[in-house]
Amino acid sequence: MTPGQNTRVLLASRPEGAPTVANFRIEYGPIPQPADGQLLLRTVYLSLDPYMRSRMSAAKSYAAAMNEGDVMVGATVCRVEASRHPDYQAGEWVLAYTGWQSHALSDGVGLHKLSGMARPSLALGVLGMTGFTAYMGLLEIGQPRAGETVVVAAATGAVGSVVGQIAKLKGCRVVGIAGGAEKCRYAVEELGFDVCLDHRSPDLAAELAAACPQGIDVYFENVGGVVFDAVLPLLNTGARVPLCGLIAQYNATGLPAGPDRSPLLMRTLLTRRIRMQGFIIFDDYASHYPEFLKTMGEWVANGTVRYREDIVSGLENAPQAFIGLLQGHNFGKLIIQVGADE
Amino acid sequence: MTPGQNTRVLLASRPEGAPTVANFRIEYGPIPQPADGQLLLRTVYLSLDPYMRSRMSAAKSYAAAMNEGDVMVGATVCRVEASRHPDYQAGEWVLAYTGWQSHALSDGVGLHKLSGMARPSLALGVLGMTGFTAYMGLLEIGQPRAGETVVVAAATGAVGSVVGQIAKLKGCRVVGIAGGAEKCRYAVEELGFDVCLDHRSPDLAAELAAACPQGIDVYFENVGGVVFDAVLPLLNTGARVPLCGLIAQYNATGLPAGPDRSPLLMRTLLTRRIRMQGFIIFDDYASHYPEFLKTMGEWVANGTVRYREDIVSGLENAPQAFIGLLQGHNFGKLIIQVGADE
Fold it and tell me: Which residues make Cβ contacts (< 8 Å) with residue B340, sequence separation at least 6?
């Protein structure tokens, strides 16, 4: 970054399969000046999340795809650098959606003030989209009951870590799946999961069956691929599968080889009376955000729910960090520190 | 059938693929006599339903599989022929689950008296399992709203015909899919569907897209296979898919050739926030049966909901009729008239 300049990361070209740094382009330019009614935002934190991979492709996904040459999209925590807007003053913290850039103009639409939040970066994680996703997906679709078995993929990720902790609060047996011994240890010792399995194990299916002697009542799906293959035979009658993400698929360039297992999937859903439901958090549940924020805010403040942030410094490092996120290299909520807090 | 004898249809051998008459064996024997506390039931009507195919296989499905040599399972409407049970008198009509046989003993457990029903065979169809399945699956999982588009497979079948009529009552656009011109004409002219398409058309996908210009909000799944393939690309964001049956799969001996489309299915559910949910009517919703019976009883009595029965005479004809049911040869609720009404 160059002081006094606006740094922006653009989508240079659509990835074929896994993204590479060549799919991004960094540009520098003058910092824009707010007109009357506008404010200038300076990005302090940028959230990196798997959904961004879908937005890089031309195919319609959650939302409209980006075009080549667009600034990469993303949620940010910003400070108001200068304001010609009556509702904002310089120095205020706001949650915004200004993307991968160091500065942006805003007319105030879509901003949320973060005046009450002790640690503003949490608005991108446990108190923001990822925590809210975990909370609503588990409680509204998963409907966990005490004594049931809940399996959580990507167990130490920004969403999975919160899912597992809430499931423990609800009295469930919680089995996590994560990548590597260190993450598994963290899930059990720090987050309180009952068990955590390494998805790289060649015996994952057998290990998961052993870890779930009563079968699986709720599977919180963030991953797809081999993890789902191990889960499917263990789903109990009446199980619920909140479908939140499929990170194992995002870089796929085509469908896997046959046979076609979609009839097997549908037959399993039918004969075991399973509910599988996709959701997009703010599209489906925006009205629940205040309730979430109150409950989760208390849980975080009193240490009931723990979080971990994986903060990478410098906007220029965002492409490589994002590529690593899709490979599971992060450990906790991945955030780019774009600028100084003060 | 031999007067004075008990006629029974047994599972002789498990089918490989489509059942044949060789998978069934008809046996004759003495009519059993009730002991104290028992009653003798004489079967008047036997319901034939697609789920029975799953019960003929060794694989666990909705319920425990039958064993070779067992009497084929099934719901029946019977008359009490003789009673040594304090709660029943000879001549009463009951709904039972005595299977493919002309006579059976009962201790009263699981019987339901049909004293108030003008036409007792309706307890096997529009006022019984299939009507209840349509009612709860559509209203509880499908949640149709006025102006939405509802697509119903097996549109003139025992379940589909009721789904479509209730969806019309809720103000929906209703598109049926059925086998052949006569069934399609019936669905539109007699049942009031807006459109009905022939699933044998080589252009089904294009015809369905044209019939659903606003996409599909509710797809009531009874079929699977090529019908589901045509539906999937048209499902709207927020669509609901009650998963009631997969008759196109029931005779399959293996999975279809690749590619494996299960990731495509899950990705579609995720990005369009779709709810797909299997259900088994009496397991999931038994407590709603009185509410259903009151509402549907009124709709049937005043002609709001129409029904069609396809009644085949003679228990010995049940195997061939059942084989035809799996091929869509029936037209309306398939029932075997096992004995005289009087």
Answer: B44
